[in-house]
Write a structure and sequence with these properties.
Distance between the termini: 14 Å
Number of strands: 0
Helix content: over 70%
Shape: elongated
Largest sheet: none
Strand content: under 5%
Number of helices: 4
Length: about 150
């Protein structure tokens, strides 16, 4: 499969999963706001957030499986799985740190600043993994190449 065909397939898969991700975002935001507004750690809100994150993780896992099936190289599959897992972990860290800061008060804004530093470090790590992936499988697209202006049908 050529690089262009892979870009097209991965982009179309991302569009399909984006609908599910956005549908899960609404209840997760509802639970986050409820958790932030409550005086205590209400178990229903925490359970709702965890269920939404678990379902979002399943969606990320499915998209990851589609992407790893495009290459035959085992070390490339490991890098793809690691990269996509790290993207999801950064998403979770950002959401939870923002909710924690809002719950504790802006005196703890250093949590968000620390999270932004972690996000930047994660971005650099993802770029480095993309470069390693290109060395191993030149036909596999980098994460930044999977966007609408690169899709050709």
């Amino acid at each position: 499969m050529t690089k262009q065909e892979r870009i097209n397939l991965i982009y179309k898969t991302n569009i399909k999963t984006a609908v599910l991700q956005s549908l899960l975002t609404f209840p997760m935001v509802f639970c986050l706001v409820g958790l932030i507004q409550s005086d205590s750690w209400n178990g229903w809100y925490v359970t709702g957030i965890l269920v939404c994150l678990l379902l979002l993780g399943g969606i990320f896992f499915k998209a990851n499986r589609v992407e790893t099936e495009l290459t035959e190289r085992e070390d490339a599959k490991i890098i793809i799985a690691r990269r996509n897992g790290f993207v999801f972990a950064l998403f979770v860290v950002f959401i939870l740190s923002f909710a924690l800061t809002l719950n504790l008060g802006w005196m703890y804004a250093w949590i968000v600043v620390l999270t932004i530093g972690v996000l930047y470090g994660g971005y650099r790590l993802i770029r480095k993994q993309d470069e390693r992936l290109t060395d191993i499988d030149p036909e596999h697209p980098m994460l930044r190449e999977i966007r609408l202006d690169n899709v050709r049908d």
